[in-house]
Design goal:
By secondary structure, this protein is α+β, with helices and mostly antiparallel strands. The chain has helices spanning 2-30, 34-52, 54-73, 96-100, 127-133, 165-168, 220-225; strands spanning 82-86, 92-94, 105-113, 116-126, 149-154, 160-164, 178-183, 186-187, 195-197, 213-218. The longest helix has 29 residues, at 2-30. It is globular, with a radius of gyration of 36 Å.
Length: 227
């Protein structure tokens, strides 16, 4: 009798378990959220994998953060603004309005261009004065260390010209390069920025218009690294 009752109980438990499984499986197939739940599980699994590998996640976040900070560190230039940077201790920006407040120099020049021979009178600030404010970092331990320096001037349309430091330093050059604020008495448009004027040049190629960047460098890294 006892054996029979035990068998009946076991059979009943087995039937209950089967019924529960059937109900559960029917509920999943009928529930339209079943697929979403599976997707959610996959996402959770992926998240778990990422958390299980913190170095990879941290590396990606660090890389993204570095890229964002690099972009944020270079602010866009305003109309007529010139950024002075490179191998300098105090990078800064200057505008035509700022330049007009500084001591002015005037020069009459003659040069040839695509339009033929040009004769003009320019007024402006010596380029050497503008760069000196940024405090170029030349190696004072080397004789005439400033003679290893150069200046890259960039203008509208990514136009660019290069000057040796000796060309703009009054201690070495007879004439001085100007950041002109006017031509023949007519002021340049504030939105366009200043124009470089190079009295010693016979051609106007380095008369960089719409100037927006002055970058100071030294040749040592290039020369010493050359093979």
């Amino acid at each position: 009798m006892r054996c029979g009752r035990r068998n009946q109980r076991r059979a009943g438990l087995a039937l209950a378990a089967v019924a529960a499984l059937l109900v559960a499986s029917c509920g999943q197939s009928a529930d339209p959220k079943g697929a979403d739940g599976a997707k959610g599980g996959a996402k959770d699994g992926a998240a778990g994998a990422a958390s299980a590998s913190p170095s990879a996640g941290a590396g990606a976040e660090a890389s993204a953060g570095a890229g964002a900070s690099a972009k944020a560190s270079v602010a866009p230039l305003g109309p007529g603004e010139v950024r002075v940077g490179g191998a300098v201790a105090k990078p800064y920006s200057v505008t035509l309005t700022d330049l007009r407040k500084l001591p002015q120099a005037s020069v009459e020049v003659t040069f040839t261009s695509a339009k033929g021979e040009q004769h003009h009178t320019y007024q402006g600030v010596p380029l050497h004065d503008v760069l000196k404010t940024a405090e170029p970092r030349f190696d004072a331990a080397k004789k005439n260390g400033q003679l290893r320096g150069f200046v890259s001037a960039t203008g509208g349309g990514d136009y660019r010209a290069v000057f040796a430091w000796a060309e703009i330093d009054p201690g070495f050059a007879k004439s001085q390069v100007l950041l002109a604020v006017s031509e023949d008495g007519v002021a340049f448009d504030d939105a366009a920025g200043p124009r470089l004027v190079v009295p010693q040049d016979t051609k106007g190629g380095r008369y960089v218009s719409e100037l927006n960047q002055l970058w100071v460098g030294v040749v040592d890294p290039v020369v010493d690294g050359a093979k």
